[in-house]
Specification:
Oligomer: single chain
Radius of gyration: 22 Å
Order of helices and strands: HHHHHHH
Largest sheet: none
Number of helices: 7
Number of domains: 2
Strand content: under 5%
């Protein structure tokens, strides 16, 4: 009887582990855009999306490098939620940090405009469809 319980327990833990890892993997590969839209994108459009992601990563890294000790402490503070941390850090930005963000934002905006201008009407409708679905879940 004890061995049957152990086998059953191992089986349930295995199923649970597989389920959790599958859902995390699925979430990891979820995209901002629907799979249907991704399939219709041209190589130029995919390059623009990749370029935007790279600039966002560069911006985040550049900002993190300029953090003061106080700002780093805000990030490390576990008593605050992520949105509270974000609001406090943004409020504490120096003028140099704000200029750095504006510089990167201008670059990212130009990439986004190029991407939007390159979209066909079908692709635009797919994006609008995805937005409507996401707004229903909010």
């Amino acid at each position: 009887m004890k061995s049957l319980n152990n086998i059953l327990l191992i089986f349930l833990v295995t199923i649970l582990t597989i389920n959790i890892s599958y859902s995390q993997e699925k979430r990891k590969h979820s995209h901002k855009y629907s799979q249907e839209l991704i399939e219709t994108l041209s190589s130029y459009q995919k390059e623009l999306i990749e370029k935007e992601r790279k600039y966002l990563d560069k911006q985040r890294d550049a900002i993190r490098k300029t953090f003061s000790i106080e700002q780093k402490e805000m990030v490390a503070d576990s008593s605050l939620t992520n949105s509270q941390k974000r609001n406090k850090i943004i409020a504490s930005f120096s003028s140099d940090q704000k200029e750095l963000i504006e510089k990167y934002d201008k670059r990212i905006d130009t990439i986004r405009k190029k991407f939007y201008n390159s979209l066909s009407e079908t692709q635009k409708s797919l994006i609008k469809k995805k937005r409507k679905k996401s707004k229903k879940n909010d």
